[in-house]
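How it folds:
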Amino acid sequence: MTDLIGGLIDVVGERHVLVEPAAQQRFLRDFSWYSPVLADAFVDTRIDAVVQPATLAELAELVALGVRHRAPMTVRGAGTGNYGQSVPLYGGILIDMRRLNRIVSLGEVSVEVEAGAVWEDVEVAARSVGRELRIMPTTYHVATVAGFLAGGSGGLGAVTYGRTWDNHNFASVELLSAEDPPRTLRLEGDDLRFVLHTYGTVGIVTRLRLPLVAAHSWQGWYATFESFDACYELGWELSDDEAVLKRLVSVHEAPIPSMFEPVKRLFTPDQSAALLMLDEGSVERARAAVGRFGGVLRPWPNKPLITEFPFAHTVLWTKKHDPASTWLQTRFKNDRQVALEQVHQLQARFGRRVVNHIEFVRTPDGLNPSGLPALFTSDPREIDAVIAFCEQIGVQVANPHSYVVKEGGMVKDIAAVVAFKARTDPFGLLNPGKLDGTFYAGAVNR
């Protein structure tokens, strides 16, 4: 162990090797406490060191050193994950990538960045030349680009361009294998499936190329409704209307909007609400649509930003309101009426124990209402009952109550990923225990 720590210090300097438990603590936590099933999964996590490389050459040396010592290696960005994606299970080295944050090249069509670049910095750079990113996480102020690739799925722009794995939203990725010496691999097209939402288990991402589009003037708006049905219909209408330029269409069943503590004055407890990011040229068309469904459209206040409330941010606000609450990730049918019927089935079966929150996402197969419902229970058996009912009525579940990629359900061809990992991580050192295994079934006694 002393030889390993000494080698790390030789590569990056003593200042960037953290061995004291107090200094390491913040690197061993994320937002997995959203789940009562995961709440205790990482309480005993221990590691040998946090190491912070600043160059690709340093990173390659660190990887080779880790391989020689057969030390587990877990890569981490800003730690905004929700189910332990980058929290180590088996100790070893945690590689903090945030110093590898350069924008390598910027053009009209794409931008190439290092893995630790922050989304907001990349967006600012793109806007300086009249362009913008297609998609980015709602945590764009702090989230790293590779972290979103490896652990995220949807965010701003998904209503137009889809999830991380849709429509070539990542153009190409370079990564290092866990070998001595490490190889550099470049992935494009279908091969990107090996690194998308696989938690850094198959390689260490070093560079990424992101497509750019023309920049828009985005504005935050919100619409209130007396029924969730009307709110849902408005969400579908705007999301499916190509004449409305949008970056966010997020609909919330009452009383969720009134739980948004900093802006709860905007809503009454019986109001459902749609959170919208619209191009300024699309506002009047959107206003007319809101009116057709009996709602009222208003501008979002200057602070806090509207991006602090959709997607998984909603879970934070509902948990602050009710600490016993939790969440799911679901996919309703890509059919306007069938999806609404599925919503009604959930409402009839669970009443106010399951309250709907839907993000509209454009997929290659059509418009998809993606659910992040609030579950007002902390009982794992009740959570599992909701999951089972969703599956029974044809609602797909991406389980946020497991740290295992396979159980999460977002990566379909696990066997192909496992086979790829065998070539890039022959000793099984990269984020071990996270790719192909079981956790949830045992945790809920399924």
Observations:
- DSSP finds 14 helices and 21 strands in the chain.
- The first strand starts at residue 17 and ends at 18.
